[in-house]
Amino acid sequence: MTSNRQSIFCAAPLALCVALGFALTPVSGKPPATRPAPATSAVQGSGKLTVAIVDFEVAVPGNADFAKQLSSVVVGTMQGSPGFSLIDREDLNRSLREQELALTGLVSNADAVKVGKLVGARIIVTGKAFTLGDQFFITAKLIGTETSLVEGVLVKSKVGDDPAALALQFAERLTARIREVGPRLTADDDIVKDPMPALKARLATLALPVVAVVITEHVIAKPELRADPAAETEIKLLLTQAGITVKDVAANRLTDWLKDIDKTKGAQWPQELANVDIIITGDGSSDTAVKIGGLFSSSAHVEMNVIQRKDGRIVIADKETTRAVDISENIASKKALEKAGHALGLKVLDYLSANLPPEKPH
Predict the structure, then answer these.
(1) What was the pLDDT predicted at 38?
(2) Which strand (E) or helix (H) includes residue 257?
(3) What does the pLDDT look like over 136-170, one tens digit per residue?
(4) Residues 6+ apart with CB under 8 A from 301
């Protein structure tokens, strides 16, 4: 009974378990399934698209910092999006210096391909921002390092309009464009494929559980504020889209019970969890990393435990760190938390699709 209580106690937010020094060990004594990788994983497949963002050339009078700001907005928008992996900027710049190439605006496709292969990027993104008459343009080239094929993206606005809003519009359009043309640029039909259709198809033939989700969230810079449950909502959305029943549980009731479980021998599960098969619980935090012109770049970190109610065993212990950019600080934080919740929700569905029993015939 003691081992059960310890395992159940660690169903509390991971940050609390780590802070108190508890090991995340399931009842069976085997190491927790930290990152399950089923043989037919739809989430961790070979179609991960690695992208390198080169600092943009900027010819905009009176805004010398816009090049790095624009690159930061693009990185913040893409980071954490399913299917994407961004090359570290320091690694990229180091390779550029070693090859004696300009740090901005790689015009030569051959040079872009060369650097992409050095840093392991399948797509290199280069671009330029400039004014022409009364118009403000941002353009980008998407270069496939394996195929040397090129695609383009362009957005424009009137000179004098908010450049931050245009930068965000460009970053969102660029992300969507890379997702659209990635298969052609890499000659890989499986690249950046949405995993949800495959997961839903696999889950459709299985005995689906009832799931409760409680992810507490807070804003690091403003601990007195309680963040909207953006990560929790995203996980619930993915579960319901996959046909899984999600039972609403009061966060305060479950959190209080988790805190008291180690003090009360033989404590029973809350009545709210009577028909629940799996509990997903954890902790999320968000913080504004930097202000980029008129935009806010926020980061989020979400830690998650997935516990089987029947034996208190932790079947997944995982975490995600993401970034997002928006003209509103609050919305940027919310987007970052949503990205983390989306990535974790896909991992939950992937695990369930590989471990649930077949549905019994009616």
Answers:
(1) 39
(2) helix 251-260
(3) 999 999 999 888 899 999 999 998 888 888 888 99
(4) 284, 285, 286, 319, 320, 321, 340
- Write the secondary structure of 176-215 as one string of H (helix), E (strand) and C (coil): HHHHHHHHHHHCCCCCCCCCHHHHHHHHCCECCCEEEEEE
Cα gap 9→24, rounded to integer Å: 10
Note whether 243 and 204 are within 8 A (CB): yes
251 exposed, middle or buried (CB, 10 Å; 0-12, 13-18, 19+)? middle
Which element (helix H / strand E) includes 235?
A: helix 230-241
Tell me the one-letter amino acid at 142: L
The residues near 288 (Cβ < 8 Å, ≥ 6 apart) are 221, 296, 297, 298, 329, 332, 333
In whole angstroms, what is the distance from residue 339 CA to residue 304 CA?
14
pTM given for the model: 0.67
**84: which 2 tokens?**
């994407």
The helix, strand and coil proportions of the chain, stated in percent and rounded to the nearest 5, come to 35, 30, 35
As a whole number of angstroms, the distance between CA 116 and CA 221 comes to: 37
Mean pLDDT computed over every residue of the chain: 77
Name the DSSP letter for residue 81. Answer: -
CA–CA gap between residue 357 and residue 16 (Å, rounded): 32
Q: What is the pLDDT of residues 191-229, one digit of tens each?
A: 667 789 999 999 999 999 999 999 988 887 665 555 568
